[in-house]
Amino acid sequence: MKKYRVWRLNLGWQILIGLISGIIIGAIFYNNQAATTVMQNIGTMFIDLIQMIVLPIVISCLTVGIANMGDIKKLGRVGLKTLIYFEVMTTIAIILGLIVGNIFHPGTFIDIHQLHSQDISQYVQTAHKAEHAGIWSTLMGIIPTNVFSSLSNGNMLPIIFFSVFFGLGTAAIGEQGRIIVDFLQAVSQVMFKVTDWVMRTAPIGVCALIGSTVAQMGLKALAPLGYFIVLAYATMAIFILAVMGGAARIFKLNNWEILKTIKEEMVLAFSTASSEAVLPRIIDKMSKFGVSEGIVSFVVPTGYTFNLDGSAIYQSLAALFLAQAYGIHLSLTKQITLVIVLMITSKGIAGVPGASFVVLLATISTIGVPLQGLTFIAGIDRLVDMGRTVVNVAGNSLAAVIIGKSEKEFDFEKNKKYLNNLHQS
Question: Which GO terms fall under biological process for this protein (predicted)?
Answer without folding.
Answer: dicarboxylic acid transport
